[in-house]
Amino acid sequence: MDFDLNPEQRAVLEAVETLLDKHAGAARAVELAKESEYDGPLDAALEEAGYGDIASAMGRLEAALIVETVAKRGGVVSAGARLLAAPALSLDAPRGPVALMRAGHSGPVRYAAHARTLLVLDGEAARRIQLAPGVCSKVPSNFGFPMGRVPDEIAAGGETLAPGDGARLQDAWRLGLAAEAVGCMEGALGQTAVYLKERKQFGRAIASFQAVQHRLAECAIQLEASRWLTREAAHTRGASEAIATAAAFALDAAGHVFAETHQLSGAIGFTREHDLHVWSMRLHALRQELGGVGGHRRAVVGQRWGAGEGKRDGEGVG
Predict the structure, then answer these.
(1) What is the pLDDT of residues 114-162, one digit of tens each?
(2) DSSP secondary structure of 149-179
């Protein structure tokens, strides 16, 4: 595997960063969170720029890179579902937000209150449900994502997709979770590093203390390991085991980064006035989906030794 992005990939990410400079950021995320809103203008800008079709135009790795970048910049859009999950099912690029849920899930679902398309993982099958505006109610949340509740009668319906689409949806969902976790960890760690360089104790910047530097370095190591496991999984076709491994590692690392960034930031890290929560609280939401870290680890075991993932991975968000 080549660890350097090629010129086309670098150009795409530079263009995405430029777009996000105009439409995303912590201040935008905080404003949207007040009413649990979805970032329609950012969604439309990404669609207008052609990124909704990036997986078919360039590849799954490029789509994962964009998902990671959007998460790093605090974008409030369903990038993982739109750029990875829908293309994995050979669906035409959906218009508007896309939500993902497991059959039988009774809790809040990310983006459900605003979604126009709901993709349901139902055992070995996948279903697509077209949602009318307002059919899913908003659910107040501190997780940094707009949440919604899908009525049982709606979740039970929809169109059953092609054989094998359940496994493809599960892989794409996991890959998206890993990519989002990488982006959110980078955002949280970057915010923390900036604060520690500015905050002083004993006449010195906190970031100058060796013990603090060691803790930041450990977070950075876990972040980079998560990043390259995720990119390798995205690059490798038919890589269910690699995807589950990346998700298990990245979401486990997310818990460590959450704890460390909040401890290093001190009391201000737990306030709404400080922007750390824009990324850190999302890490908690991501850690709940698809059975959490335990579910991803069971998937690795199932792929490696054929032991199966188990039918009851728990019910987290989505």
Answers:
(1) 999 999 999 999 999 999 998 999 998 888 899 999 999 999 999 999 9
(2) E--HHHHT-SEE--TTHHHHHHHHHHHHHHH
pLDDT tens-digit readout, 189-199: 999 988 888 77
Number of domains in the chain: 1
* Of residues 129, 143, 142, 61, the one with CA closest to residue 101: 129
Nearest alpha-carbon partner for 77 in 132, 137, 122, 16: 16
Among residues 224, 232, 243, 247, which one has the least CA distance to residue 294? 247
Nearest Cα to Cα of residue 50 among 22, 74, 82, 6: 82
Across 85-167, where does the E strand assignment appear? 98-102, 109-110, 117-122, 125-130, 137-139, 147-149, 159-160
* Domain annotation covers residue 252: yes
pLDDT in the model for residue 102: 95
Each residue's pLDDT tens digit, 222-255: 999 999 999 999 998 778 999 999 999 999 999 9
Strand partners of residue 138: 148
Contact 282, 184 (CB under 8 A): yes
Expressed as residue numbers, the domain containing 251 is: 166-305
Under 8 Å CB-to-CB from 17, ≥6 apart: which residues?
Answer: 69, 73
User: β-strand 117-122 against 98-102: which pairing, if any?
Assistant: parallel
Q: 126-156 b/e with 16+ CB inside 10 Å = b?
A: bbbbebeeebbebbebebbbbbbbbeeebbe
Residue 160: CB partners within 8 Å, gap ≥ 6? 122, 125, 126, 127
We report the CATH number of the domain holding residue 187 as: 1.20.140.10
